[in-house]
Amino acid sequence: MNDLNVVAETIKKCQRPLIGGHVMPDGDSLGSVLALGLGLRLLGKQVTMASSDPVPELYSFLPGIQEMLVGEVNPGDYDLLIVVDCSVPERLGAALLPFYEKGLTTVVLDHHVNDQPFGHVNYVRSTAAATGEIIMDLLDVLGVTFNTDLAVNLYTAIVTDTGSFRYENTTSETHRRVARLLEYNIPVARLSNLIYSEQPLSQIQLLKEVLATLEVSESGQLATICLSRQTQLSIGAHDEHIEGMINYARNIKNVEVAIFFRELEGQRVKVSFRSKYFIDVNLLAKKFGGGGHVRASGCTVEGTLMEVKAMVVKEAEKLLGGVLNCGRYYHHP
Amino acid sequence: MNDLNVVAETIKKCQRPLIGGHVMPDGDSLGSVLALGLGLRLLGKQVTMASSDPVPELYSFLPGIQEMLVGEVNPGDYDLLIVVDCSVPERLGAALLPFYEKGLTTVVLDHHVNDQPFGHVNYVRSTAAATGEIIMDLLDVLGVTFNTDLAVNLYTAIVTDTGSFRYENTTSETHRRVARLLEYNIPVARLSNLIYSEQPLSQIQLLKEVLATLEVSESGQLATICLSRQTQLSIGAHDEHIEGMINYARNIKNVEVAIFFRELEGQRVKVSFRSKYFIDVNLLAKKFGGGGHVRASGCTVEGTLMEVKAMVVKEAEKLLGGVLNCGRYYHHP
Predict the structure, then answer these.
(1) Where in chain B are all domains bearing CATH 3.10.310.30?
(2) What local confidence, expressed as pLDDT, does residue A238 receive?
(3) Is any Cβ of chain A less than 8 angstroms from the Cβ of B185?
(4) Contact partners, residue B310, CB within 8 Å, separation at least 6
(5) How many of the other CB atoms lie within 10 Å of CB of B206?
(6) Whether A222 contacts A187, CB under 8 Å
(7) What is the pLDDT of residues A224-239, one digit of tens each?
(8) d(CA B90, CA B100)
(9) What Å distances lie between residue B318 and A152, B279, B297, B323, CA to CA?
(10) How far apart are CA A35 and CA A62, in angstroms?
(11) Hey, what CATH topology would domain B4-196 get?
(12) Angle between the N-to-C axes of helices B148-161 and B27-42, in degrees from 0 to 180, rounded to the nearest 10
């Protein structure tokens, strides 16, 4: 039942929709909830927008965000649950899941590959770069007139999920939709600043510490960085700021594989992998009980930072050239 | 005479055009030269493409770049000079300027604000995000059939001059053109890697050193970084890698003004300014005999690193709040 018209008919019939996205909300989830919520209000619906998890401060500029319920949703009297950017019920989180479990009619709108979406009415388009693209099309089908607030939310959804139009999911259709959104006087430079140029100072301090651990293999194709638990605690950085650090290793010239070793409690190490052009790091993560995608994967391994690093680097070098140069793996001056 | 048809007529009549851009070539200059050059070849012209300055290694992936003459252009027998992305003859550089000076008919295609372009036939459109947009339109007027090689060059021109579609110059028309370019099977993710994810290791080492000098004012609105001549020489970093460092200071949360102090030979300091939302750093640079734009400017000041920093920070804080907190200006833990 992959038809936007069916979704539109279902939505037209409702009066009091509850709209939500996934836990640990990102720009696509939030922007999609808000664009759809503000859009349905223009059609006269009594809209409630909600998130089980807190909204990252980064997204406090999104039009309508101050009206989003966070962490708790009163039972209320909803006649439809609309879920965006969420492929399994569990990712609705504690505040929204009960409504689905109690049988409230549920519409799922998503761009993740998913053969069995969990809604009563579903629309999944995995070629969409962001769920925001689907919301944009749905608003058109519903006959909603666009405005700047809608456009800013949709733009944010699309720009964040495409990494500023750099990822593989970016298509002609993505740019064509954004061309249209820009006609609603979106302040592009200001939004870019708000999204990309407001990094917490702790993130920069973390970067300084992490760069001090950078090592590049003799071949230049493998780069590693490390973060001890002690350093992390002393800086007090959030997980969302830690994750991105691996890109500094990945983005070094000639590096194909980047690995980030992050010490956890109880002699465990979280290992993240990234590759640039040809190495399947999903295979690498699988060797250590993890998984993920071809260019981004991860696993958690028991042992000290040093032990885990030695083991994982050995496997990575095998994959990178068959040549075992572990003895010559050195700290670049 | 700001008519693309006039340009097209002039170009149609030529047989052996010499095409060049500006010194210190960037993505827009190189991509525009190559797209136009490859396009005119498809029309049967005997095209010579040239650059007075070396091509940054970063751009070695551009289709056709290996055919570009660098640093020296034999007198040859050219019947037209086509100059892209260049607003004054001096920026043609030593290899190309003589052709203009000797009176070779010159076409100028540019997107910089310029009331008096220097060509015999000129087309200037300052609303274009990149000269690449103008070249794209010109190729259409000339009836050139697009292909992947042309599209990659035009895409690179546009994506680099808009900072990946983040700068103020990005318009609906920009995205509309890129939507069309993507139809020629551009490998977006691969190009993004080549353009943004191949940073020399020396750049990361430089970053480590420069971050160690980061200071943020008590108000959190002013951030400074420094680079001593000794550090720069010991790392051996290129100017193009040094310039970008200021963004790490600018992109800190709540920071409005970022200043980068870079020690030069002979007791002089190069000072770069960036602002985010509201401070006019052109005014700031002018106080020290420099200049630039509202959000990006610079000057060179005589004195030691410490002296110049104290002076400039004082003026910046005046501008930022009228409150002189120099005594409380401190090194953030």
Answers:
(1) 201-326
(2) 79
(3) no
(4) B326
(5) 23
(6) no
(7) 999 999 999 999 887 7
(8) 10
(9) 34, 11, 17, 6
(10) 10
(11) inorganic pyrophosphatase (n-terminal core) (3.90.1640)
(12) 160
B207 in contact with A, Cβ within 8 Å = yes
Does domain B201-326 bear CATH number 3.10.310.30?
yes
Calculate how close chain A gets to B252, using CA atoms only, in Å: 5
Place of tokens 């002690």: A230
Backbone angles phi, psi at A301, to 5 degrees: -125, 140
pLDDT per position as a tens digit, B231-241: 999 998 877 77
Read off φ and ψ for residue A241, nearest 5 degrees. Answer: -85, -25
Topology at the third CATH level for domain A201-328: Diaminopimelate Epimerase; Chain A, domain 1 (3.10.310)
Cα B331–B332–B333 angle (5° rounding)?
110
**What count of residues does chain B have?**
333
The crossing angle, in degrees rounded to 10, of helices A148-161 and A131-142 is 150
DSSP B25-92: --HHHHHHHHHHHHHHHHTT---EEEESSPPPGGGGGSTTGGG-EES----TT-SEEEEES-SSGGGG
A29-60 core/surface letters (b: 16 or more CB in 10 A; e: else) = bbbbbbbbbbbbebeebebbbbbbbebeebbe
Q: Nearest-5° angle of CA B224, CA B225, CA B231?
A: 160
Contact B175 A172 (CB under 8 A): no
- In this complex, the residue of B198, B211, B220 whose CB is nearest that of residue A207 is B211
The residues of chain A that CATH labels 3.90.1640.10 are 4-196
Question: Under 8 Å CB-to-CB from B190, ≥6 apart: which residues?
Answer: A277
Tokens of B6: 């006039």
Cα A31 from Cα A267, distance rounded (Å): 39
> What's the pLDDT tens digit per position in A96-122?
999 999 999 999 999 999 899 999 999
**Beta pairing partners, A84:** A109
Closest by CA to B178, choosing from B150, B160, B153, B158, is B158
CA–CA distance, B100 with B89 (Å, rounded to integer) = 8
Q: Nearest CA to CA, how far is B194 from chain A (Å)? A: 9
- A190 in reach of chain B (CB within 8 A): yes
The per-residue b/e assignment along B236-255, b for 16 or more CB within 10 angstroms, e otherwise, is: ebeeebbeebbebbbbbbeb
How many CA atoms lie less than 13 Å away from A125 in the CB half-sphere? 18
Task: With CB atoms and an 8 Å threshold, state whether A251 touches B197.
Answer: yes
Residue whose pair of structure tokens reads 């009980």 in the numeric block: A289
Tokens representing residue A237 in the block: 């950085």
Strand order in the sheet with A69-70: A69-70, A48-51, A17-20, A80-84, A106-110, A121-124
Nearest-CA residue of chain A relative to B276?
A193
3-state DSSP assignment of residue B144: coil
- Quick one: tokens of B235? 């790392």
Average pLDDT of the residues in B109-129:
95
For residue A324, what pLDDT band results from cuts at 50, 70 and 90? very low
